[in-house]
Model the fold of this input.
Amino acid sequence: MFKSLILRFVSARDDELAPMLWATAYGFAIQGAYYILRAVRDEISTTNRGNLQILWTVVFLVMLVAVPAYSWVASRYQRGVFVPLANRFFILNLVLFYLALTFLPESARPWIDRAFYVWASVFALFVVTVFWGFMADLFRNEQGRRLFGFIAVGSSLGGIVGSTITSSLVERLPAFTLLLVACAPLEAASWCVAVLHRRFGGAELGRPATQPLGGTAWSGIRVVFGSPYLLTIAGYIALMTYASTVMYFVQADLVGAAISDRAARTALLARIDLWANVLTIVLQVYLSARIIKWLGVGFCLAILPIIAGVGFLWLGLMPVVTVLVIQQVIDRGVRYGLAKPAREVLWTVVSREEKYKSKAFLDAAIYRGGDLVSGWIYAGMSALGLTISAIALVAAPLTALWAALGVKLGRRQEERARGTATGGAPAPAPTAS
Done:
């Protein structure tokens, strides 16, 4: 009965069912841990909203060190070692933050908050990037188109559970107690990795999955600048980051001005996450795989900037918390329900080194570099006297370019997928549009 129920929502073969469910459980655990911490991090941003661009500068600098360090580890250890190692490194960090918050004097709290904000911003991208790199390594392009939507459901369910835990406990317990709660799903994720690697690891791209990736700490970064395909992904991520950063700053300003109580702000932000994940699941279960199949990856990538553009125009006309909440729920729902599975399909047609190293560089360093630049742009516009309405209206036209890159990426992914199917290896990226 359980198998029949699952197959009503996803087109999976019998031999794909078990790895798909383990992958879904892995995503559930990772996102559960992240969403337990997300509202805590976002509440810190409202308290430090005048310094956000400085914090994001620090995040970017940390990423410049973290990405090569991660690539070095990936070059020397097989994925069954370095993926759980990354999760357990973050568990250790959470325990250290808890001890600092418990035993250091209250006067140190603002600096611990800022350090945690930087750490959580790095954590948020790294664990998700490693997860989807692993998925792109386990499943082929054709499988990813059918299965990634359902696997992403696990992530969304984890988000719902995590944000529910936070909104339920944050006003009853010290917020930093949640740091220890998040350790449990992170450890569970490490066990899921072990099962997936041991029982379902494949090597369809030519290098045994039980071997290290090889190369150097910088090799995955260098290849990005020689690949038009990866550079187009970088452009898409950069514009996506600009839009999300502007919206994040708007959220910090509107929520911080409207609600003074820190626990109440955290609860509101957790509820936004909750409803965004509900919408995400609906899209992932009923529409994601179907739209990718019928309309293609490019359409799924382009619909997010269209939604964002409408949201910016609406906030430009009505810059109030109610509009912000509606926009954030819809934007995040589409981002993770449609665009995210499609964006991860892009990585099924590249080499294993690109899936782990280049992907980490683009999803982490480029993403946070975009945060850095976008944060200072927002701060500059605010310093010039632009209101939230004006800033939102300025951001709206860029979503057209963002959508065009999404369509272009969909076309290039199809070309590389055809090359992979006929030649057995990822086709070289086209040199011209």
User: Anything to note?
Assistant: The mean pLDDT is 83. The chain has one domain: 13-203+218-422. DSSP finds 16 helices and no strands in the chain. The first helix runs from residue 2 to 7.
